[in-house]
Design brief:
Helices cover 38% and strands 19% of the residues. By secondary structure, it is of the alpha+beta class.
Length: 180
C-alpha cells in the first residue's frame, strides 16, 4: 500500500487488484484533538474562502461541491464535531430511514421531490415598494395582505404595484423551479 501526502491530506492507495485496475483511494482524515473543537468552530466564520476550501479537502478527502460559503461553514462545523465526537448512532440512522420510508414508500424519486415549496404558514414576507413597507402573512391556504386573503403572491404584488408581477420574484423568493 502506497501513501501519498499532499497538503496534510494523506491518501492510502491500495495496490492494484488482480484485474489490474487500481482500487479507489480512501482518504485518511487527520485526527482532531477534542480541545481544538471550539477553537476550530469559532474560527470558521472569519476564515478565508481559500482556508475553508482547504479544510474541506482535509476533512472530507474530496473536492468541495459548488455551494455557498454559509453551507461550507455549517458542513465543516458538523464534520469537525462528527470526527471528534462521532456521527449519528446506527439506531438513529435506522429510525430516520424507517420514517422516510413511511412517508414515501422507499421510492427515492419521490423522496427527492418537495411537496410544497411555499413558506410555512405564519411566515411574514416584507417588501418595500415606492417607499412603503408591505407585509404579507403566509396562510395555510394562501396569503393575507392588508386584512384581505389572496390566493397567490402574484395577486398581492399586482395589488401593491398595479402591474403584473411574479409574486415569488417580487418578494425575493426562489422560483418553484429552484432557480434564484
Amino acid at each position: 500500500m502506497t501513501r501519498i501526502s499532499t497538503n496534510n491530506l494523506q491518501v492510502k492507495t491500495p495496490r492494484r487488484a488482480a484485474t489490474g485496475s487500481p482500487a479507489a483511494a480512501v482518504p485518511v482524515v487527520p485526527a482532531i484533538p477534542p480541545a481544538d473543537v471550539l477553537g476550530r468552530l469559532a474560527a470558521l466564520p472569519t476564515a478565508t474562502t481559500l482556508d475553508l476550501k482547504q479544510q474541506w479537502r482535509e476533512l472530507f478527502g474530496t473536492e468541495l461541491p459548488p455551494y455557498n460559503r454559509r453551507f461550507l461553514e455549517t458542513r465543516l462545523a458538523y464534520r469537525v464535531q462528527e470526527l471528534v465526537y462521532g456521527g449519528l448512532k446506527s439506531e438513529t440512522v435506522a429510525r430516520l430511514t424507517a420514517l422516510g420510508e413511511q412517508l414515501d414508500g422507499g421510492n427515492l424519486v419521490v423522496r427527492r421531490i418537495r411537496g410544497d415549496d411555499k413558506p410555512m404558514a405564519g411566515t411574514r414576507l416584507i417588501r418595500e415598494h415606492a417607499g412603503v413597507e408591505h407585509c404579507v402573512t403566509v396562510l395555510a391556504s394562501g396569503y393575507e395582505y392588508g386584512g384581505r386573503p389572496y390566493q397567490s403572491l402574484s395577486a398581492v404584488a399586482r395589488h401593491i404595484t398595479g402591474t403584473r408581477w411574479n409574486g415569488w420574484t417580487f418578494f425575493g423568493l426562489k422560483t418553484r423551479r429552484g432557480l434564484a
